[in-house]
Amino acid sequence: MRGARGPKRETVLGCAVALAVAALLIGFAVADRAWGPDIWRGTAPGWPGGGYGFAATVGVLLPWAAAAAITSFSQVNWRRNRARSLGWSASALAGAALSALLLLVVFAAFRPKKRHRGYDCYREGGACWVHTQYPYVWAVGLAATVAGTALLIGGLVAYVRRRTPNDSPPPTT
Predict the structure, then answer these.
(1) Are 148 and 64 in contact (CB under 8 A)?
(2) Tens digit of pLDDT for each residue in 137-158?
(3) Which stretches of 50-173 are DSSP H helices?
(4) In terms of Cα–Cα distance, which of 62, 64, 90 is closest to 76?
């Protein structure tokens, strides 16, 4: 009797996780349609450097926000210290929320295939408008993401080198 409850509980938990992921993806798609054009229309033209500066800023921040979320979440250990884990969880949620917002900005600039383009695509802030106003926004965003990732890795390498001793101890005979 006891063994029958375990797999059932795992199945229910697996279904709940799958439904939560599906709900997040649907929510992300709805948010992309609702807020994406407004973000590009309202923010990009006034950003230093215009749309290209905005894409560069988003590209540099994206790997850092993802790293903040992952690093914070890896520090959570509810069994050891609940209060500290609550703080790390809040930090991880903030990093995940920032990552989601930045991804929303990136996905809002993706231009759909020609057969799926309508009036909404060409109005101010739409994906086609973004590519008309800033034709190389994808290249700037990609280059900035690569640069942000390189800065993150370089900073991590410098941190690890600083934390480990440079000299090995002299051999003893």
Answers:
(1) yes
(2) 889 999 999 999 999 999 989 8
(3) 50-74, 82-108, 119-122, 127-133, 137-163
(4) 90
Q: Quick one: what percent of the chain has pLDDT higher than 90?
A: 19
User: What are the C-alpha distances in Å from 68 to residues 73, 77, 158?
Assistant: 8, 17, 17
DSSP of 10-32, one letter per residue? HHHHHHHHHHHHHHHHHHHHHHH
Tokens of 94: 């903030």
For the stretch 71-105, pLDDT in tens is 888 888 878 888 888 888 888 888 888 888 888 88
Q: Does residue 47 surpass a pLDDT of 70?
A: yes
- Residue 143: other Cβ atoms inside 10 A: 15
SS3 118: coil
Q: Exposed/middle/buried for 115, CB within 10 Å: 0-12, 13-18, 19+?
A: exposed
On whether the CB atoms of residues 102 and 65 are closer than 8 A, the answer is: yes
